[in-house]
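Marked as duplicate of an earlier ticket. Keeping the data here for the record.
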Amino acid sequence: MTENFNTEKLKAYDIPLTKWFFRQRDTKAIEMSSKGISIDIGCGRGHLTAKRKETVGVDLSPNLVDIKKKHRNRDFVRCNAEYLPFRGESFENVFLLDALEHVQDCEKATKEAKRILKKDGSLILSLPNENYFYKVFSKLFRTFYGGPYPPDLHSYDYVKDVVSKRFDKIDTQYIPKIPSFFKLWEISKYKSRKK
């Protein structure tokens, strides 16, 4: 993940439209997940981790200490998505919500996600849908609300290709649910591909 990126400094996270989006995304991700212990890789401010019981939040951000204080009844671990300090097959669900496009090594992070996911577990992945409307929206948003933003190190298509090497897609939905050119984010459920 992008090291030293402090999500607390991102003003855009505090505006109503962004809050609405993250609520929609997190709600959809929880609906798509199975029961059981989960991990939220790239948890940012820890909203999904706080909403879903039995979920560990993982992020490389230096402000994870502050997030731990805010959500005292949840577990957070500061580590890199490419090197997760968990035993194999530990989690029923792995959430990678708007995270894989920001990691240094997408292949390694995806391999780690598969390693820690139980055999019948689910990977829940969300990505910005890089259509024309998203690009215009993103440019306007960044212009008016400023950064800093974690850099997108990988494209939507590249991330999907990397994930499809190890996982089979089961379901895909879009946020928001309005005409197709407005579909800003894709959220998908995957199962591990058999070897």
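See parent ticket for discussion. The first strand starts at residue 38 and ends at 41.
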